[in-house]
Design goal:
The complex is a heterodimer. By secondary structure, chain A is mostly beta strands. Chain A is 0% helix and 49% strand. By secondary structure, chain B is mostly beta strands. Classes of the chains: A mainly beta, B mainly beta.
Chain lengths: 114, 111
C-alpha cells in the first residue's frame, strides 16, 4: 500500500473535549511526524515517533500526545481541547535510512473546536 | 523574525512565465525541503536538498549553504502549478521530522 492516509478528514469538537486523529504510514517507512497548521500559517512540528517511541517534540503542551503501532501507523491525541487548537493536522511518514529522508504527507484532518 | 522566510508571499503569473520563489533561513541545517500544498490541504514533497541543484520536470531547486538561501524555479508555468509552495528546513542535529516551515508562497497562474 502506498501513500499516507489520515482520518477523519474533518472533525468538529467542543472546547474541553478530547480528540484522536489517525495516520497510516507509507509502506517501507518507519517514522511518523505530526504537524499543526493554523490558517494562513506554515505547519508547526508537534512530535515524531520512531519504533513506537516519541523521539522528538516541538513546543506543544503535554495534552498533545501520541502513539505509534507495530505497523508504524500513528495516533495524535489532544485532551482538553481549546479554541486555538482549531487547525489542519498533518502527518508525514518517512524512513530513517540515511539514503532516504523523503517525506510522504497525508491530506490532513481539519479540526474545528467550538 | 522567523527562522525561515519566504518571498514573495503572493505571486500571480501568466501561463508560460518563468517563476522564482525564494527562501532564506537563519539556522544551521542538514536539509531543506520544498513542498507543494493544494487548497484541500494535502502536501506533496517536491525536493529535498542539502547542496547544489535538483531538477524534476519543469521544477528546479537550488541551495546556497554559505548564503543560507534556496530558490525554487518553475519554467513554462501552467495553471495547474497554482498552489502554495512551502520551504522547510531540518535544523542540524534535530530529529528527522523536526522541520521548521516558512509561511508559504501562494502562486496563482492565469491562463
Amino acid at each position: 500500500e502506498t501513500g499516507v492516509t489520515q482520518s477523519p478528514t474533518h472533525l468538529i469538537k467542543t472546547r474541553g473535549q478530547q480528540v484522536t486523529l489517525r495516520c497510516s504510514s507509507q509502506s517501507g517507512h518507519n517514522t511518523v511526524s505530526w504537524y499543526q497548521q493554523a490558517l494562513g500559517q506554515g505547519p508547526q512540528f508537534i512530535f515524531q515517533y520512531y519504533r513506537e517511541e516519541e523521539n522528538g517534540r516541538g513546543n506543544f503542551p503535554p495534552r498533545f500526545s501520541g502513539l505509534q503501532f507495530p505497523n508504524y501507523s500513528s495516533e495524535l491525541n489532544v485532551n482538553a481541547l481549546e479554541l486555538d487548537d482549531s487547525a489542519l493536522y498533518l502527518c508525514a511518514s518517512s524512513s530513517l535510512k540515511a539514503s532516504s529522508y523523503g517525506y510522504t504527507f497525508g491530506s490532513g484532518t481539519r479540526l474545528t473546536v467550538v | 523574525k522567523n527562522e525561515v522566510e519566504q518571498s514573495p508571499q503572493n505571486l500571480t503569473a501568466q501561463e508560460g512565465e518563468f517563476i522564482t520563489i525564494n527562501c532564506s533561513y537563519s539556522v544551521g541545517i542538514s536539509a531543506l525541503h520544498w513542498l507543494q500544498q493544494h487548497p484541500g490541504g494535502g502536501i506533496v514533497s517536491l525536493f529535498m536538498l542539502s547542496s547544489g541543484k535538483k531538477k524534476h520536470g519543469r521544477l528546479i531547486a537550488t541551495i546556497n549553504i554559505q548564503e543560507k538561501h534556496s530558490s525554487l524555479h518553475i519554467t513554462a508555468s501552467h495553471p495547474r502549478d497554482s498552489a502554495v509552495y512551502i520551504c522547510a528546513v531540518r535544523n542540524y542535529g534535530g530529529s528527522q521530522g523536526n522541520l521548521i516551515f516558512g509561511k508559504g508562497t501562494k502562486l496563482s497562474v492565469k491562463p
